[in-house]
Design goal:
With 209 residues, the chain is an alpha/beta fold. Helix content is 34%, strand content 29%.
């Protein structure tokens, strides 16, 4: 595996990924220090790591800056990069959902014009196209739950984990778009050039799940 570079999503996914890799003998002590280095390394295994924002991980992998990456399925669906999705890592589980006030369910069935607020316009657009609906989609970057409360949108499309924020604000899940979890992705050229060692790494990770 010497020389492989792995892009990790900052935050909980990075911590869970490192725990998984440690189970198969890949360690990076620098990950747990206050270092300001941007690229970290397991010198014994020769594997390099770097942390990136979730939305950037597929780009690093697509263009070969990283051979592999770990990122949520939501990001893959939204970004649509030309990379291989090879493994569901079974953590970071949540769901992409349509949510709003309870009366929103009737609105979705009525075929009337409505507005959707979301951080995921591509996912939202595809979901509603499958329902033969074309609502106005508003892209937001902050607390999406605010949009129906202040009247900006009728419903939202967003990640739902516990649903507590929705409940506290009088909102409910109206429909589930898709399940979401962390996925292992691979650069297409790397898979071809370093097929044996990457396939071995995928097998080992899969066996440890």
């Amino acid at each position: 595996m010497s020389g492989l570079t792995i892009a990790l999503t900052k935050g909980r996914l990075a911590s869970r990924t490192m725990s998984l890799l440690e189970n198969i003998g890949i360690h990076c002590e620098e990950m747990y220090t206050d270092t300001r280095k941007l690229v970290l390394e397991d010198e014994g295994a020769g594997v390099k790591f770097f942390l990136a924002k979730a939305g950037d991980v597929p780009t690093y992998v697509e263009y070969g800056a990283a051979d592999l990456g770990v990122v949520g399925k939501d990001v893959l669906l939204e970004e649509k990069k030309d990379i291989y999705e090879v493994l569901d890592l079974k953590f970071g589980k949540c769901r992409m959902a349509v949510a709003g006030f309870p009366e929103g369910k009737q609105l979705l069935r009525s075929g009337a014009d409505f507005k959707v607020a979301t951080k995921y316009p591509e996912i939202a657009r595809e979901y509603f196209l499958k329902r033969h609906q074309m609502p106005e989609i508003l892209k937001l970057g902050g607390s999406i739950e605010l949009a129906p409360i202040v009247g900006l949108a009728d419903v939202i499309v967003d990640i739902v984990e516990t649903g507590s924020t929705l409940k506290e604000n009088g909102l409910v899940v109206l429909d589930t778009v898709c399940p979401v979890s962390a996925r292992l992705v691979v650069n297409k050229a790397s898979m071809k050039i370093r097929h044996e060692e990457i396939s071995d790494l995928i097998r080992r990770i899969g066996s440890s799940l």
